[in-house]
Each structure stands twice: as C-alpha cells, then as structure tokens.
Design brief:
10 helices; Rossmann fold; single chain; globular; 5-stranded parallel beta sheet
Length: 261
C-alpha cells in the first residue's frame, strides 16, 4: 500500500454499500482502513485509525449519523466527513451542513459521483494541509472584504486560506444561499464567492437577489459542474467570473487577482 494514500473509514449498516464503496475507493488508490456496521465504536476507531476521510451513513441502528458527525467534529474540527444518505431533505442537509459536513454521497449513487465527490474533498484536504499564510498579522487596513458561501466546510476553509493569502479580508462564511444573501446585504463586502449548489437556496437564486440589491458587488461563482445553461444564466445575472472545483491553488489566486485587483 502506498504510504501517501489517503485513509478512509467507511461506516454503514448496509454490507453491500460498504463493499461497493471499499472496492471503488481501493480502485482509485485510497486506503480503506476500516469498515464499521454501526456507529457504536466509531469514536474509538477514529482515534485509533486516524482516517483522513470518514464516509458516514445518515441512518444506523442506535446512533444516527448527524449525532456522530457532531462528535467527530468535537474531537477534530478539521476532520473530513462525507455523509451517506438516501434523502435530499433540505432540512436534514441544512443541519448536516451546519454541523460541518464536507459533502454528501446520495443513494443510489453512481461510481462517477462517488469518485468525484471523494477526490474533490481529498484534494481540498491535501491543499489545506500544506497551506500557509503569508499575512500572519491579518489583512491590511485597506484590504478588500470578501464573503464565502459554500455548503462544504472543507471548501470554505480552503477558499478562505487562499483568499487570505492574497491579503483579502474574509468577513463572513455562509453555509447556504439564504445566509449568503443575508451576509451580502448586512456586511456589504466588495465581493462574494458563491457556490452554485447549496441547500435552502441555490447559488443562482442567491446571485439574483444579491445583485438585485447590491448591483456594484462582485460575485464570483464557485462550481464543480460545467453546466452550460447555469453558466450562461450566472453571466446573465451579473457574475463576474468563475472558480472551478476541485480548487487548484494557483488557478484560484490568478482568477481572484484578475477579478478583484
């Protein structure tokens, strides 16, 4: 096994789902360090195995995934958890996002979806672990204020560090479209980095509201999809540019420099 391979712990009471995920992950070079059929021993296993990523089922006998997610975040705020779920219920998604989930693996999931989601958060995790801050004393007095809106905790963390490396002042982090609109109206930042896919209110809906009330505000769309219609609509609504996931540090920095400076 490659010592540099990212370690994944799978927690799901469905044996076939555990098996499918394990095969997919190993085929992509990940190291599956454990497969748990319940959340009963998750905390002990997490502390012992120290996985880089946890794939955690939403519903299991005895302990639900949301409660376990919160416990993992209490142990390590930066732990990367992907929630395995069979629901697209906005209320549940909102609670998971607020608790710090990095993303969702929605059943029935395809091989492409699983690999894309896990690779995306793993890439962000690796970049984040090697990130540095060339402005240890914080932004300067004339720094531009920016708000970040993304439902993935790890994506917010990574984008925040990259923006701060440019001397920008990240004054707010929104976890959904509604919160993004509220922060834009309340904080009046110079710019907002807005994810397209978020619970509660989509990025396009938030973009329309933000630009309608703040026509001078620059909105940079953040997306993992190259949907032509959404891109076209975002431009029509006034987006000034795009950042594509997974984030490549230098590409993000160059894009933001071009758009904001």
């Amino acid at each position: 096994m490659d010592k540099s391979a990212s370690k994944v712990l799978i927690v799901d009471d469905n044996e076939s789902i555990r098996g499918v995920l394990a095969v997919l992950l190993r085929s992509e070079g990940f190291e599956v360090v454990g497969e748990l059929s319940s959340g009963e021993h998750l905390i002990d296993s997490f502390n012992r195995l120290q996985p880089d990523i946890v794939c955690l089922d939403q519903e299991m006998p005895g302990k639900d995934g949301l409660t376990l997610l919160k416990k993992l975040k209490e142990i390590n705020q930066r732990c990367v958890v992907l929630m395995i779920t069979g629901t697209r219920d906005p209320e549940f998604q909102q609670m998971a996002v607020a608790a710090g989930v990095a993303g969702f693996l929605t059943k029935p999931f395809s091989q492409t979806q699983v690999i894309k989601e896990i690779k995306q958060v793993d890439h962000a995790r690796k970049v984040l672990s090697n990130a540095f801050n060339p402005y240890p004393n914080g932004p300067g007095p004339n720094s531009l204020n920016v708000v970040i809106a993304d439902d993935s905790s790890i994506m917010r963390d990574l984008l925040s560090i990259l923006l701060k490396s440019l001397g920008l002042n990240v004054i707010g982090e929104a976890i959904d479209g509604k919160e993004a609109v509220t922060m834009a109206n309340e904080y009046k930042p110079h710019a907002i980095c807005l994810d397209l896919e978020m619970p509660n209110m989509s990025g396009l809906e938030a973009l329309e509201k933000i630009r309608g009330e703040n026509p001078e505000m620059k909105v940079i769309i953040v997306s993992g999809h190259a949907d032509r219609e959404k891109v076209k609509r975002a431009i029509e609504l006034g987006a000034c540019g795009f950042i594509i996931k997974p984030f490549e540090a230098q590409q993000v920095i160059q894009t933001v420099k071009k758009l904001l400076f």
